[in-house]
């Protein structure tokens, strides 16, 4: 029995010894090496983030004036043609002057009579008073005639027997007769209160004013260009009646041309007088650098936008109004801001980070950003000028990861 127990114990010891030898013979696994991630880096620099805001618009003339006559009359001359260039002061059209010239001669004669009366006024104060009475009677008769004519013309006009132009002339004649009557009445009242000399002096002044008005009316029969430019339209014909309500000729100044736009609240923040704009004209396959020349300080309440004007030089008048253009404003955050590649910024948990290079490791740094474009973003805090950051390969990194710099962003370009 004792021999049997000894045999079992020896067998167990031999088995344990064999297992220990086998474990000792098996090699232990080597310690795993840390992974090194290749990356591309760039340097934090000062610069500007360029922003772009674009819209479509049309070119418009710098000046556009619709020219009509100050007096009514028949057009006797219309020497300009569509597309013709005219200088400021050049004759555009003329009206019939016959009636106006007669009015000037009548006013001149009235002035001569008034001056003659003034010379005789020392001995004829009573005569001056009588003349004032006669003038009032004549004015009263003229007013009665004008009222009768106006009423008759009104009836004919309502029946369609006369034109609106003739009706307008009858109304004007009545107004003039009423004015003459009021003046004559006032003159008589003054004559009854003043000496004959004072009355005659007043008559002379009145005659001088009448003559001046008649001459101005005659001058208005010749209509000249108010600006230099091209004839954009001719809406009258020789023999046609012209009036102040109907333009006869339109003149436009096309150098420079204007782009008139309406910008929203967001876009107007970055636009001011002098802001550079790139204006592309698709039909001409041409892009022009222009500047903003006017910005409204108040919003257009109907459009809910701010009117803006951009001036386009057009010295050879090659560009035409109403051409469709595409406009892009280029504004920036300023050349003194820290700017990095937008691709370097990663977001996590609602925060923004970049990986800053420190030796052969990448440190995760939280940053605050500002304005951004499709390529670049402004750094407000978290980095300093000259810092190196990872711009490619950062998605494979974590804070403290080992890195190897493959190349810089400048070299990769």
TrEMBL record:
Residues 342-404 form the YknX-like C-terminal permuted SH3-like domain. One of its GO terms (cellular component) is efflux pump complex. Keywords: Signal. It holds the Pfam family Beta-barrel_RND_2. Residues 115-134 are annotated as: Disordered. Residues 64-252 form the Multidrug resistance protein MdtA-like barrel-sandwich hybrid domain. This is Multidrug efflux pump subunit AcrA (Membrane-fusion protein). The lineage of its organism: Bacteria, Bacillati, Bacillota, Bacilli, Bacillales.
